[in-house]
User: What shape does this take?
Amino acid sequence: MSSIRRRALGVALGVVALAAVASAPVAAWEPTKPIQFIVPAGTGGGADQMARFIQGVVSKHKLTKEPIIVVNESGGAGAQGFLDVKGAKGDPNTIIITLSNLFTTPLATGAPFNWKDFTPVAMLALDEFVLWVNSSEPYKTPTEYINAVKAKPNTFKMGGTGSKQEDQIITAEIEQQTGAKFIYIPLKGGGDVAVQLVGNHINSSVNNPIEAVAQWRAGSLRPLCVFDSKRMDYPAKVTQTTSWHDIPTCKESGLDVEYLMLRGIFMPGGVSQDQVNFYIDLLKKVRETPEWKDFTEKAAFNQSFMTGPEFVKWLTDAETKHKSLMEKAGFLAKK
Amino acid sequence: MQDLAYLFHGFAVVLTPFNFGLMLLGIVLGVIIGVLPGLGAANGIAILLPLTFTMPPTSAIIMLSCIYWGALFGGAIASILFNIPGEPWSVATTFDGYPLAQQGRAGEALTTSFTSSFVGAFFAVVMITFLAPIIARFALRFGPAEYFSVYLLTFCSFVGMGKGSPAKILASMMIGFALSTVGIDIVTGQLRMTFGLVSLLKGFDFLIAVIGLFGIGEILLSMEEGLAFSGATARINPKVVLETWKKLPRYWLTFLRSTVIGIWMGVTPGGATPASFMSYGAAKKFSKDGDKFGTGVVEGLVAPETAAHAAGTSALLPMITLGIPGSPTAAVLLGGLLIWGLQPGPLLFQEKPDFVWGLIASMYLGNVVGLAVVLSLVPAFAAILRIPFAIIAPVIVVICAIGAYTVNNSMHDIWFMLGFGVVGYVFKKLNYPMAPLVLALVLGNAAESSFRQAMLSSQGSLGILFSNGLVGGITTLALVMLFWPLISKGLRGVLPSRAPKTPAEQPVD
Assistant: This one.
């Protein structure tokens, strides 16, 4: 009996010791005042939704001692928020969520910042883009559609969010790949784009899944292909007959264009690795909650998660890609 | 009549003690948010959104939408008492509301505005209840050209409402347009008029201009005129509500017209702000007291408030049925739906009837409760004007500064607000109207981008503004409104028998 008890005690002690070791790096640094979570976009958009979702999950599961406060700084296509974080050098209580404007805003407007001014924390997910047409149109594949566009250059209207941002860059990439010519109509937000497409005011869009899914399920829109290297991971039926996984990639349907939008978290420059680790750890915990699984499935995100050198390499490649695409399309700010 | 059955089920959902408590809480929070300039319903709801994660979605939307109703009611309070619009759609409320308060009729003005808000909202909800699918399809017909024609109509129905010289109105409007171009240009993605200054990147937010022009400008004027509010003599009359109600039914036509304008602008989605301006302009044109507008006419208060509330309410319709927000606040609520695991869109009515009808029922009850709450406070609000100027003025300046800061979390905005205050003072002294500047600033950007989007899709042909019955009709209506003084003169020439003629318009100022 006693030996069993002793062994049990030993195991218990071991567990305690292990727990202490495991939790030691977490205790190394913790925010000492409320965490300012900057969104370089307006309220209600994709980045804002994600930031407020994270805020809600963190407070529901009590993952931090200090509260998170979401602050929208959307001025100048997000430049306002990025420049503020750039100016907050060394402040470990500030984080920022990025969208593609991390690359596109400085390139298109000449606003003085670059992702290297910030400390990359983690890639949370990648947002997919899908080529959509109105379901009353005859086109079933991207090739059919592109051929129709090619036959009548400068008559087909591609609607997208903003100007010289992700949607127009994808459009430019399609044009560069295929020689088709669209009229690009910059609209205010993703929901706007979907509704303009349903109302037949534009011919196609490259909406994110979440922006168009409601109209797809109602039978008003048809997805042609997804701009990713592999099909989306979600096999559950979204409409009566089709799942996200059933949508072919553009590449397999003969349109060799790939684009994914970063949903990542950054800190200001000049912070310590301990401080970065705190946030990496926090984001990992957020990703393990059931709410996150539900949220990403609804939005059909590409669930890649990256930190450290792997993430830096991804960022370097993405910047090069944006630069070359935007240069070819003539989107760069005049010096 | 299955809808009615659902609606009554919705009432049952809302009337549980928990939901009813949340509703009251939301209304009170909303009124406070509406009174404080700058904070705004959209920000208020965004801040509270994460708190709702632990609630059932129906309870959450009831609370958040009640904040919205409360803010719609509350926006009128500061506009009437201090000439400071707490929300963009309250700007037109100041035109006749503030003069009324200055005449010592603050209680009457507040009652009128709350009641008008209620009427507008109520009819909008009735419309949502019975006509949602039809109206939603109508909204789909609006492309860039249609949007532009709506903005054109707003501008045109507004022209001529400022008193004094047309040249001054034009100058004021052009300054507004120029200010609205500062910042990022959505069509080209380029920065404009920022002169390389980081503080100008975000442009001039309309609220900051309004807080400065109206709020700070008014305080500067009051300081010059002897450190007192003209409304301080107001008698506090507990029966003011009933006495005002007796007078209101005679404005039924204004109520009706403003409700229609409001519902239309809320659905399309022009939103509450253009609705209030357009409705004010139309009421001025069609009223027989039109030339007295701006001096404290009750009808001039009925029109914008009814339209703003009808628009604010019906703005939720495209959000539920199409998944597009009709207003910034609806955009935040839309985010909330996604976070709660609901999918707004055409199928929401079928998939989550509990949620949708709970929301609609809460619109009915929220507005009734909201009206009761704000009306019971009318004497208290009116009494604020009796506080000595020396005490209340610094408080107002501080609240204005906080409001200006909140809009973008930027210190620069407080300086801009003070600058606009000086501009407002100079405008008043030189008899320049401020309303055209405000209108151009708030709608300039939207009008410009929809015009350029339309020109992109038509490849530069103006014919697109007449390309179908809908857009052609609105454009024609706008032109008729613009040239109405000439047209009515012409008609009078053709039909000379119609006596007695209205007296020629006199400049009032």
Notes: Chain B has one domain: 2-492. The first helix of chain B runs from residue 2 to 14.
